[in-house]
Design goal:
By secondary structure, this protein is α/β, with parallel strands linked by helices. It is built from ten helices and 17 strands. It has two domains: 168 residues, Medium-chain alcohol dehydrogenases, catalytic domain (Quinone Oxidoreductase, Chain A, domain 1); 134 residues, NAD(P)-binding Rossmann-like Domain (Rossmann fold), CATH 3.40.50.720. Helices cover 28% and strands 26% of the residues.
Length: 335
C-alpha cells in the first residue's frame, strides 16, 4: 500500500509500506479522508521527540472497515475513531476521562497512522457514523471534538453565560476556527479571532463571520475579554491571553507550540483569573461531535481543502510556508 512517511525533519515522502496485519479485537480500515493536524506539522518540523523518522503519522481519519476480528464492527461499517488507544481500567478511564488514561498510546505516534491507504486500529477506538454522513465531515471529528471538550470545560468556570461576554480566540487553525463556529452557533455575539496569516483571516471572516485581526499589527485590548482561548500555545500567545482577559475571566490553554514560558502570575493572582488546560477529548466528546458535524452545527465546511494523499508532501510544504487559506487540509488516499 501507499503511505506518507515522515523521513526526516521538514521531509515527508510518498512511499510503499506493508499492508497492516489484522490481529484479534482490531480492524483494518480503508482510509478515505485524513486531516493534517498542527501536531503533525510540529513533528514534521522535528520538534516532537515522540514522533520519530520512519513513522506514518495522521490521526484525524474516517473510512470503512475492510477486515475485522471485532463482531461489533463488520466489514463495510463506516467509522471514525479515537486515536488515543486507552486501557479501560485506570482511574481516568473508569471516570470517563479516558483522554487522561495513564497507559494511553496513540495512532500516528506509537503505531502507524492514517496517512496511508489502510490502517489497523483496535475496535474499541471506533465510532460508527450516522447513515449518509459525509466522509470528509467525519474526518473533522478529532479537531472539532478538541474544541467541544475545551469549551465544555470552560463553561464550568465562567461566572456568567458565555453568550453575555466577549470572547477572544488566539489562532485561526482548525481548532480555533471550529471553536469560533461552535460559539457562534451557540449564540455568542462578540467573538474576535487573532491570526497572523492574511489568507486565513480572510477565510475566517468569510466562513465564520467574526472579527479577525493580526495581533502583530493590532494588539488586542487589555482587560477586554471574559473568555480567552489560546489555540497556539506559544510564549507570545500566552502573554497575549493573560493581558487581554478581564479580571475574573477565564483563559483556556489548548495549543502546545512552546512547552514552557513565563506568564503574568501577578495578574493571574490579583485579578482572580482562572487558567485552564485541556488535552484532546473523551470518547463521549467524539460521539457528540460526530452528531454535531452531521447536523451542520459547524456550518457547511466549504472552507476545508481536499487533496490526494500523493500530494501530501506539497500540502505539508504549503502549510509550512503559509500558502493555504484553509485551516484544514484533508488528504484523500483514493481521490
Amino acid at each position: 500500500m501507499k503511505a506518507l512517511v515522515y523521513t526526516q525533519p521538514n521531509e515527508i515522502q510518498f512511499l510503499e509500506r506493508v499492508y497492516p496485519e489484522l490481529i484479534p479485537d482490531e480492524v483494518v480500515l480503508k482510509i478515505e479522508s485524513v486531516g493534517i493536524c498542527g501536531s503533525d506539522m510540529h513533528a514534521f518540523h522535528g520538534h516532537d521527540p515522540r514522533r520519530n523518522p520512519g513513522l506514518v503519522m495522521g490521526h484525524e481519519f474516517a473510512g470503512t472497515v475492510v477486515e475485522s476480528l471485532a463482531p461489533a464492527f463488520p466489514v463495510g461499517k463506516r467509522v471514525t475513531g479515537n486515536p488515543l488507544i486507552t486501557c479501560g481500567y485506570c482511574e481516568y478511564c473508569l471516570q470517563g476521562r479516558n483522554n487522561l488514561c495513564a497507559n494511553r498510546t496513540m495512532v500516528g505516534m506509537t503505531r502507524p497512522g492514517a496517512f496511508a491507504e489502510f490502517m489497523s486500529i483496535p475496535a474499541s477506538s471506533l465510532i460508527s457514523l450516522p447513515l449518509g454522513m459525509d466522509i470528509d465531515a467525519a474526518a473533522l471529528t478529532e479537531p472539532a471534538a478538541t474544541a467541544v471538550h475545551a469549551i465544555n470545560l470552560s463553561l464550568k468556570a465562567l461566572q456568567r453565560p458565555i453568550q453575555e461576554g466577549r470572547v477572544l480566540i488566539i489562532g485561526g487553525g482548525a481548532i480555533g476556527m471550529l471553536a469560533a463556529l461552535l460559539l457562534k452557533h451557540d449564540g455568542v455575539m462578540h467573538v474576535d479571532l487573532a491570526e497572523v496569516n492574511t489568507l486565513r483571516r480572510a477565510s475566517i471572516t468569510k466562513h465564520v463571520g467574526c472579527n479577525t485581526f493580526n495581533p502583530l499589527e493590532e494588539p488586542a485590548q487589555e482587560n477586554n475579554y471574559h473568555f480567552v482561548m489560546d489555540c497556539v500555545g506559544s510564549a507570545a500567545t500566552r502573554k497575549l491571553a493573560l493581558a487581554s482577559v478581564k479580571p475574573g475571566g477565564v483563559v483556556m490553554h489548548v495549543g502546545l507550540q512552546d512547552w514552557a514560558s513565563e506568564i503574568d502570575m501577578r495578574k493571574l493572582t490579583l485579578a482572580e483569573i482562572t487558567l485552564l488546560g485541556t488535552y484532546t477529548y473523551s470518547t463521549v466528546d467524539l460521539q457528540a461531535t460526530v452528531q454535531f458535524l452531521h447536523d451542520g452545527v459547524f456550518g457547511d465546511l466549504t472552507w476545508v481543502e481536499k487533496r490526494g494523499l500523493q500530494d501530501g508532501p506539497k500540502a505539508f510544504a504549503d502549510l509550512h510556508a503559509g500558502k493555504t487559506a484553509s485551516a484544514k487540509v484533508l488528504l484523500k488516499p483514493f481521490l
